[in-house]
Write a structure and sequence with these properties.
448 residues, alpha/beta, elongated, binds nicotinamide-adenine-dinucleotide
Length: 448
């Protein structure tokens, strides 16, 4: 592809698996990626600014339960290099650095690239010829070229040229924590470099840890493809959330409608309503594009409307709780409400952007004694917007009977829905989790 010596040397190292793969940010995305490359026989170094994570990994302890207790056992002693550190001056030891740091939104829904910029500046300080840097964090098109690259060059003391001395690409992460059907190794990986040599090297590298690698013509295409995937979900979820409100007023069960429509073998894909969006991606990433669109004088109206509908959902759900308590002659103020599920989706402990926090906060503001039950989270910890200081209520018949309303926010499969149906005075269900018990519950069950 190119006769450039740095390119050739790195390509050879990647091909014979002597290139050291550095992963920057060992969270939900970075940690499984680190082990995927290590499993493939590549020497790896994980970098994280959180020293507690480094201590745990060195002890072989995995802090992300959905990845399994054994994920890190014996790694430090393995024959293939496995090292982790919070010392970023060691970034020069890695031949390839894959950046998996957070990309949140600021208080005014603006992209917060501070983690990417800080990371890029740290990489720049030890940048050397023959390194490949790949950004994996979800972000707007142009970040790799216009934000990350200049930040690296700013702190670099050497006169290095991207595409010749060192190489830069973008490859979006498509991790879905808790999903059983796919994992880091089996989810196809999009790869787009700032130039052909960078794309080439990044594709060669990912082929070790990942089964299917898909080349895009540029970093910008790969950046935008990731946003499209999340916008697609965000907009479709908003559509069924809106439909839920409309159909409820017509006394039609939206879940039955979706089930019926899903029998069409083509041209339809089911999306399901809920109490609001959760997780690190879908509530956040679409707004990276709305922000960027304004820079070119355009408005991404579908995304903005979807955002509006989805963010109104917790208010709608609390309104349904109030309406159904009222039907039983009770006010929200002074009522005891048990929110089931604090995590944002079933069977994991991830609470990021979980609508359950907003439901609890709204109910507290209205004077309810709102508590939660979640087998994965014994107590609430401080999250971006909330610090609720609550402890999980044990799900026993006696406890259920003490509450005026049980609000199903996250349908963990370990909840005993039969027992809940038997003992609850009222259940407001946002997930269709109580479907089987609708007959026996009668007016004690409401959808929201
Ligand atoms: N969680 C998911 O399911 C998921 C899925 C697809 C894409 N993503 C994207 O991947 C990116 C990472 O997300 P995540 O869920 O892994 O985040 P995370 O919060 O779980 O992990 C990020 C890690 O980066 C570390 N970190 C922060 N700044 C650092 C720095 N300067 N140097 C080194 N380490 C640093 C943090 O300590 C943390 O351990 C985000 O852009 C996110 O949108 C996440």
């Amino acid at each position: 592809m190119t006769s450039n010596a740095h390119y050739q040397a790195l390509k050879a190292k990647i091909e014979n698996k002597t290139a050291v793969v550095g992963i920057m940010g060992l969270g939900y995305v970075g940690l499984p990626l680190l082990t995927a490359f290590h499993d493939a026989g590549c020497p790896v170094i994980g970098y994280d600014i959180d020293p507690e994570k480094i201590v745990l990994i060195k002890k072989g302890q995995n802090y992300l339960p959905h990845l399994g207790d054994d994920l890190l056992k014996g790694r430090m002693q393995s024959k293939t290099k496995f090292d982790v550190t919070s010392d970023l001056s060691r970034l020069g030891e890695a031949d390839a650095i894959l950046v998996c740091v957070p990309t949140p939104l600021g208080t005014h829904m603006e992209p917060d690239l501070s983690y990417i910029i800080t990371t890029a500046e740290a990489i720049g300080k030890t940048l050397r010829p023959g390194q490949l840097i790949v950004l994996e964090s979800s972000t707007y098109p142009g970040t790799t070229r216009d934000d990350m690259l200049p930040a690296m060059l700013k702190t670099s003391t050497k006169k290095l040229k991207s595409g010749e001395d060192f190489f830069v690409a973008f490859s979006p992460e498509r991790e879905d924590p808790g999903r059983k059907s796919h994992n880091t190794k089996t989810i196809p990986k999009l790869v787009g470099g700032l130039d052909e040599p960078s794309t080439d090297l990044a594709c060669a590298l990912y082929k070790h840890g990942i089964e299917t690698v898909v080349r895009t013509s540029s970093a910008e295409v790969a950046e935008t493809a990731k946003l499209l995937e999340n916008i697609f979900r965000c907009v479709n979820i908003a559509m069924v959330n809106e439909l839920k409100v409309v159909l409820d007023a017509m006394n039609i069960n939206v879940w039955e409608v979706i089930e019926a429509a899903s029998t069409k073998p083509f041209g339809f894909m089911p999306f399901y309503p809920g109490p609001g969006l959760g997780g690190h991606c879908i509530p956040i990433d679409p707004f990276y594009l709305t922000w960027k669109a304004k820079e070119v004088g355009k408005t991404a109206r579908f995304i903005e409307l979807a955002g509006e509908v989805n963010t109104s959902m917790p208010h709608y759900v609390v309104h349904k709780v109030a309406e159904n308590l009222n039907n039983q002659g009770k006010a929200v103020k002074g009522s005891k409400v048990l929110v089931l599920g604090l995590a944002y989706k079933p069977d994991i402990a991830d609470t990021r952007e979980s609508p359950s926090f907003e439901l609890l906060e709204l109910l507290h503001t209205m004077g309810a004694d709102a508590q939660y039950s979640d087998p994965y989270l014994a107590r609430t910890t401080k999250v971006r917007k909330y610090d609720l200081k609550l402890e999980s209520v044990a799900l026993t018949p006696e406890n259920i009977a003490k509450f005026d309303c049980v609000l199903v926010s996250t349908n963990h499969s370990s909840f005993d829905y039969g027992m809940i149906a038997k003992h609850a005075k009222l259940v407001v269900d946002t997930r269709n989790a109580m479907k089987k018990y609708a007959g026996e519950m009668g007016k004690r069950l409401a959808r929201a």
